[in-house]
Specification:
alpha/beta, Rossmann fold, binds S-adenosylmethionine
Length: 245
């Protein structure tokens, strides 16, 4: 279980027993710079774009879109986006060491330079990114923690939704999808309470309604989990939000 204290400035990631923690801390030459873990994900707060541009030999002051995908698993969606849009920067974040290591391996295999894999807790987002740094924030199928005693573990609650709004740029959009109807209604309730923070751009409880070919959709139009949910006939709930300024 992830402690709430994760969102405090004093929080320290502890060394983990997972062998992939060690592998991420000491990346082989082939993966160097493609993945970061723990507090290393907070070392370039406010500078991720400039850092990427400089390492690509481009003007570090150039304006390029920064996408962040929270709970990206092994980065299937962000990897495809990064391949298709080499002039945008993508950062995928997940809590699982092995998935993030796999993501870095895939970036190396496909020679994708504009993708970073972060093994970190989504609750640390304000420590990873400076106000206005992110253009597009994506959260696809966050763990719903359905049982009453588990609900306190939900990432997308009022406090988190309030904390991430300032991180988006003036054109910034936050997109969230879930198959879990009750979690979606919970999120809508939190957003209603945050009417001074977020503006709802689009909201649907059945994203693929009217698409008889939804089962044929592939990554990145749909995520790995989304494909399974569509196969099971579950409606996909989706909301796009823009921070109020
Ligand atoms: C249900 S999966 C969805 C994966 C992917 N987005 C998809 O749609 O195929 C949820 C993912 O969120 C990650 N996750 C859960 N809580 C997290 C947290 N606090 N910080 C970062 N990642 C988290 C899990 O490790 C898992 O990979």
């Amino acid at each position: 279980m992830i402690s709430r204290s994760v969102s405090s400035p004093e929080f320290q990631y502890a060394p983990a027993k997972n062998i992939y923690w060690g592998k991420l801390k000491n990346l082989p030459e082939t993966l160097r710079g493609l993945a970061l873990t723990d507090h290393d994900t907070e070392t370039h707060r406010g500078n991720w774009r400039a850092q990427f541009l400089a390492s690509a030999g481009k003007n570090p002051g150039a304006t390029i879109p920064l996408h962040v995908e929270v709970g990206c698993n092994a980065g299937h969606v962000s990897l495809e986006w990064a391949k298709r849009n080499p002039d945008s920067l993508y950062i995928g974040i997940d809590w699982k060491f092995k998935q993030i290591y796999r993501m870095a391996e895939k970036a190396a295999k496909f020679k994708v330079k504009n993708l970073l894999a972060f093994r970190a807790n989504a609750e640390r987002l304000p420590f990873m990114f400076a106000p206005g740094e992110i253009d597009f924030l994506h959260m696809f199928f966050p763990d719903p923690w359905p049982k009453k005693a588990q609900k306190k573990n939900r990432t997308a609650d009022e406090a988190w939704l309030r904390s991430i709004a300032p991180l988006l740029s003036s054109r910034g959009v936050f997109h969230l999808k879930t198959d879990h109807a009750e979690y979606f209604e919970f999120i809508l309730g939190e957003i209603e309470r945050l009417g001074d923070v977020w503006e709802v751009l689009e909201m649907t409880r059945d994203l693929h309604a009217g698409n008889p070919d939804a089962k044929k959709l592939t990554i990145p139009e749909v995520t790995l989990f989304e494909r399974l949910f569509i196969k099971d006939g579950l409606p996909i709930h989706s909301i796009r939000l823009r921070p109020r300024r």
